[in-house]
Write a structure and sequence with these properties.
The complex is a heterodimer of chains A (about 230) and B (about 190).
Chain A (H helix, E strand, L loop, with lengths): L25 E7 L5 E6 L9 H22 L9 H7 L7 H15 L13 H17 L17 E3 L4 E6 L5 E6 L7 H16 L13 H12 L3
Antiparallel strand pairs in A: 1-2, 1-5, 3-4, 4-5
Helix pairs in contact in A: 1-4, 3-4, 5-6
Chain B lengths: L8 H7 L5 H19 L2 H27 L7 H17 L4 E3 L7 E6 L21 H13 L2 E9 L8 E10 L11
Antiparallel strand pairs in B: 1-2, 2-4, 3-4
The chains are: A alpha+beta (about 230), B alpha+beta (about 190).
Subcellular location (chain B): Endoplasmic reticulum; Golgi apparatus, cis-Golgi network
Function (chain B): May play a role in vesicular transport from endoplasmic reticulum to Golgi.
Family (chain B): Belongs to the TRAPP small subunits family. BET3 subfamily.
Chain lengths: ~230, ~190
């Protein structure tokens, strides 16, 4: 028979990784659920902001959605890699600039249709970029090969990209929870810290009976624990 | 950096904070008793237990994924094995076995020899038709829904009704892939 079972204190596992550098170098963090709802946005260091919160969240979600599809399609180990030639043409430098992404998608669309070279008008203002990018994201999701819906965690997935000014680290769980951490560009591999943050989410948010799943997180204890942890990250 | 391997049910069970098994059993019993008193109809109680289980399942899945480190299962067969060996072990301290696969691999049975919910329980005649452990069917259904699987979960055998084991049938209805949620391009 089972008998009495008393157990020790709970441990959040994995335990917090040792910081790789000192200082508070995380800029911001997003948590989305599978329906695109931004459950959490935390900001520690973001001097420039050109979009409204809603536009910013939508852009971020759209970017990730497209990047997931794109990276899966680009996978040279998978049977379907007809887009890799185009990547070579454009070159990888600056590919994460908004205009380059738009250009890339435009070319991919054109090549998929067997047609010529589409003109891409990327306006200089942020409004134009948002509209254009949102359109492309919608377009690819609805019409393009790149928009084939995938189950979260299935196939090839990306976990970070780096520009000259920041690094974006990404983790997606099979339940569709997406955690994005934007840090300084020299940050190391943040996959373990992201897993730890997911554990914090489970302990402080999921297990909080006053929290309704699928709604924005308003748990003070979660926010302060998160802030404390992120401060220790390299 | 090498990916971390999934942890086994025993290991996780040993590392999480747990509660006295009798307290768990008796608390669950008190809940069912109260539901019977409040709702009177046995069918209503079954539905309510399933709904409670569903509400637990949609949260439980994240704890399961966070603690067990499993990545997305390749097919439903793997899913069933993971539920039986890791999931049940992690949360209830018992493992289940998976049997009775249909030809397409979309329907199977989870057999529980040992069920902590039903210790000390005997169903009286006034509770004919009650699925005492119906919270479990809700939990499985809720958890699987959060990983894009719509399922139907029903009890085939129930020891409290005189059968020799607890048999939970899990039937995969469909996989629901993630879709781009924004409808307009604003």
């Amino acid at each position: 028979s089972k008998g009495m079972q008393f157990f020790g204190g709970s441990e959040i596992s994995p335990s917090p990784p040792a910081p790789t550098a000192s200082g508070n170098n995380a800029h911001m963090m997003y948590v989305f659920n599978r329906n695109g709802i931004c459950l959490l946005y935390r900001e520690w260091n973001r001097p420039h902001r050109t979009l409204s919160a809603q536009q910013d969240h939508k852009l971020m979600f759209g970017l990730l959605f497209s990047l997931k599809s794109l990276t899966a399609k680009m996978d040279p180990t998978s049977s379907d890699c007809k887009f890799s030639l185009i990547i070579v043409r454009l070159g990888l430098v600056g590919i994460w600039e908004l205009e380059s992404i738009a250009r890339l998608f435009e070319l991919l669309y054109a090549s998929r249709n067997g047609g010529g070279d589409g003109e891409v008008n990327c306006k200089g203002d942020s409004q134009g970029n948002v509209r254009h990018f949102a359109f492309l994201t919608w377009f690819l999701a609805e019409k393009g090969n790149l928009g084939v819906p995938q189950l979260p965690g299935q196939g090839c997935s990306f976990h970070s990209f780096r520009t000259n000014t920041y690094k974006l680290s990404f983790m997606e769980t099979p339940s569709g929870i997406k955690i994005i951490l934007v840090t300084h560009p020299r940050a190391g591999d943040l996959r373990e810290p992201l897993k730890y943050i997911y554990n914090l989410y489970v302990e402080y948010v999921v297990k909080n009976p006053l929290y309704t799943p699928g709604t924005p997180i308003k748990c003070e204890l979660f926010n302060t624990t998160l802030d404390q942890y992120v401060r220790g990250l390299g | 950096m090498a990916p971390v391997a999934p942890r086994s049910g025993d290991v996780i069970f040993a590392s999480v904070e747990r509660v006295n098994a009798e307290l768990f059993t008796l608390t669950y019993g008190a809940i069912v008793r109260q539901l019977i008193t409040d709702l009177e109809e046995v069918e209503e109680v079954n539905k309510q237990l399933d709904q409670m289980g569903y509400n637990i399942g949609i949260r439980l899945i994240d704890e399961f994924l966070a603690k067990s480190n499993v990545s997305r299962c390749v097919d439903f067969k793997e899913t069933a094995e993971v539920i039986a060996k890791v999931g049940f072990k992690m949360f209830l301290g018992v493992t289940a076995s998976v049997t009775n696969w249909d030809a397409e691999g979309t329907c199977c049975s989870l057999i529980l020899e040992d069920n902590p919910l039903v210790d000390f329980v005997e169903l009286p005649d006034t509770c004919q038709g009650l699925y005492y452990c119906n919270i479990l069917s809700g939990v499985v259904r809720g958890a699987l829904e959060m990983v894009s699987m719509k399922t139907e979960v029903t009890w085939l055998r129930d020891m409290l009704r005189g059968d020799d084991a607890f048999e939970l049938q899990v039937k995969l209805l469909k996989q629901v892939p993630e879709e781009y949620p924004y409808k307009d391009d604003e």
